[in-house]
Amino acid sequence: MNMCGIVGLFLKDKALEPHLGEMLTSMLVTMTDRGPDSAGIAIYGGESNGRSKMTVQAAGPDAAFAGLAKSLSAAIGAEVKVAVKSTHAILDIPTGSTQRIRTALQELNPDIRLMSRGDSLEIYKEVGLPKDVAAQFDLAKMSGTHGIGHTRMATESAVTTMGAHPFNTGDDQCLVHNGSLSNHNSLRRKLRREGIHIETENDTEVGAAYLTWQMQNGASLGEALESSLDDLDGFFTFVVGTKDGFGVVRDPIACKPAVMAETDQYVAFGSEYRALVDLPGIENARVWEPEPATVYFWSHNAVPTSTEKAA
Questions:
Q1: Which of 23, 39, 53, 287 has the fewest C-beta atoms under 10 angstroms from its C-beta?
Q2: How many structural domains does the chain have?
Q3: Residue range of the domain that includes 11
Q4: Do both 32 and 175 map to the same domain?
């Protein structure tokens, strides 16, 4: 079991986009006592035309990232730009070159770890207190359309950067989790046989990989979350990010805490209400506890307040 803090913020009001990082950081820091050993944040920003991004991490960033842009550009025969942020770097790559970049990174330096990939997603995660992790990456200055964050109190697996959430398992997809999956070992074997790349022994990554597998087989995020209620055993609250939205689901027993709030400007999620108290207009928000075994999903490509109910 783990006792973690989860936050999520989906903006409906474009005027708030420059403040997304600041709002998410404040929510995350409030959850510090639920997870003081590592923290991570996923931010969805605007897309850049014909380009994709990858976030990578290295324990020795100075050596790992020196000359990386040049080496990767040579390896794929096209321009790759590298922007270093502390122990992480954002690779700006041609769309469609993700797999070639992954292969090149393995050959150039296996110590560089992939944090995220997609057109708009960036993930920053590191061991340490949430406020220190946020300061390390200047998260408060980041803008975007939506994002999720996690503070971790590890009880089952090691405290490492790779063990921190969010987990990214498909383009522009990521997941944070509070709970414990009891059938993750058998599911991990099954998903690996299906060709899904799973990096760690962490049960959350299996949850993320499961959703990716479902969506690769044609399910929408809402359908994948509904299937998870049948296929995943244990206690869980998932908050999932996709390119255009975010979703929430709790297991049928729903013993892990969760609260949501919605106004005309945003939808917010927190493990506890105190994560939401500083949000603008929270005193007039509709606040509720998400129902057990029910899928909630908001998308920028749909009616903003769409909520999918599981049967």
A1: 287
A2: 2
A3: 5-45+127-299
A4: yes
Residue tagged 């992790």 (tokens) = 133
100 and 22 in a common domain = no
Query: How many residues appear in the chain?
Result: 311
Say if strands 266-270 and 38-44 run parallel, antiparallel, or are unpaired: unpaired
304 has pLDDT over 50: no
Task: With respect to residue 310, please indicate whether it lies within any of the assigned structural domains.
Answer: no
Mind listing the pLDDT tens digit for each residue in 204-220? 889 989 998 998 999 98
- Beta-carbon contacts of 299 under 8 Å, excluding residues fewer than 6 positions away, are 242, 244, 245, 306
* Residues taking part in catalysis: 4
Phi, psi of 241 (to 5 degrees): -110, 140
304 in a structural domain: no
Q: What is the mean pLDDT of the chain?
A: 91
Long-range Cβ contacts of 250-255 (<8 Å, 24+ apart):
250/290, 250/291, 250/292, 250/293, 250/294, 251/179, 251/292, 251/293, 252/292, 252/293, 253/292, 254/290, 254/291, 254/292, 254/293
Query: At 183, is the pLDDT very low, low, confident or very high (cuts 50, 70, 90)?
Result: very high
What CATH number did the domain enclosing 108 receive? 3.30.70.240
Quote the radius of gyration of the chain (alpha carbons, Å).
18
Strands of the chain, DSSP E = 5-11, 38-44, 51-57, 81-85, 88-94, 113-118, 121-127, 146-152, 167-170, 173-181, 234-242, 245-250, 259-262, 266-270, 286-288, 295-299
**Rounded CA gap, 82 and 71, in Å?**
11
User: 258-272 pLDDT, tens per residue?
Assistant: 999 999 999 999 999
Query: What's at 250, amino acid-wise?
Result: R
Q: Is residue 308 part of a domain?
A: no
Model pTM score: 0.91
DSSP assignments along 1-69, one per residue: ----EEEEEEES-GGGGGGHHHHHHHHHHHTGGG-BSEEEEEEE----TTEEEEEEE-SSHHHHHTTHH
